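Quick one - first record:
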Amino acid sequence: MTDEILTERAGAIVRVTLNRPEKHNALSRGTLDALRELFELHREDDTLKCAVLTGAGERSFAAGGDLVDLAQVRSEDEARAMSAQGMATLQAIREFPVPVVALLNGDARGGGAELALACDFRVAAATAHIGFIQGHLNISTAWGGGTDLVSLLGPQRALAVLCRSELLSAHDAHAAGLVDMVAGASELGEVLDTFLQPLLGQKPQVLRAFKALANAGRAGQSHSALQAEETSGLVTTWTHADHWEAADGALASKTRGARSDDRNQT
């Protein structure tokens, strides 16, 4: 694993950091491969509840593709291979079995915006920006981020974002539906903790069931396929010991409450 990607396990969270601050955390092909390998490595860890993806430093979450590295991509075949490589990385993040939160410590530009949208949620510093600015290089989106944008905003609003090729402030991105929460720079960690709190209150197998259902919807599966996924998740979680512990506790509490009511009425 390259030192361009740092990982830290904090309880039920795996924290992943793009560690190229001198290059604004730009995404080279090597960085993309390392990121994909990392998410694939952790996907079978059934004790995880979520992943947090961020960038080193305060200026950039990810500045997009590494222009020096990608300048070598010239032919149609090379362009297709580069696109497939980036899509495989972002797909590993989309398909990660528990929620992935992008912590936008700084700007997410171009391919960095695509990376942010591959995550399930986005928490941004107030000083951060997000922009699908690929049009400035006379290219379109490369790694499936355009598809994510259309799914998130709808085709008309997504087209406007793509055609305008603007950097949106964190607050404007929040208003547009691209960002879930915004925090002052000194409050970013605290706001992230607040955002993660309800997720961490869930059991890992429950989060996996919720994420599997969301992934099926994201993939455009049929209504019957979504229902089948929902049933599968229900069977797994219903028969788990954690469910029966919670159900027995709820039943015992209800019984105690009923007895208390009876005593109050006599």
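second record:
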Amino acid sequence: MKILIELAYLGSAYSGFQVQENAPSVQKALQESLEIFLGMPLLITGCSRTDSGVHARQFFATAEGNIAESFPVEKLPKATARVLPRDIVILSASRVDESFHVRYDVEYKEYEYVIANTEILDPFMKDRAYHYPHPLDETLLNEAAGHFVGRHDFRGFMSQGSKVVDTVREIRYFTVHREGATVRMRVAADGFLYNMVRILCGTLIAVAEGKIPLDSLDDVIASKDRTRAGATLPPQGLYLSRVVY
């Protein structure tokens, strides 16, 4: 049986979703908890590889194993709450066809980057937002974000170390809005390159600081030159917020 699991997690204590050597991961914690509950080894596959410190409001994974067809999968959320770490929760569980692939069948994902735009950081936002103490013009940032919408080669917005060859992605929307002292950057695409969201958001910050002129953004994208884009912002402000199949 293949089970589709919807979960959410606070990533502060983890090296990301994917299992890492000698480091805690969400995948390992999920696998160990499910195996304790079900009493059998399982193959866990995630919809994405989130970086260390990144959070997820919605994340999907599949669990495969010798699970009886009669097993009541809908009871997993409540049952596993007793064995999962407190910063990981299963929201729902359902059976899916064997042909379903939790990563390759994704239509698009939405990420949100949260900025605490205050002089002094609220301690309850520590590790849950990027603290930026200088004024931000969300109207300017929203206009800048619009330059990235569409199908482009985003090679210049990818960190070194990635083995990806095809760097063309289509951004469906990229918006910036303010809620009091919190600035939220939301971007959805059919796929993302290594650190792409954090670099996109860092580029918007560079526009806000006058380091990258607004009217040069199209040239920056076309150049495919990493040195012309903005900095890679810290992971603590990043949330995988929506996954659509």
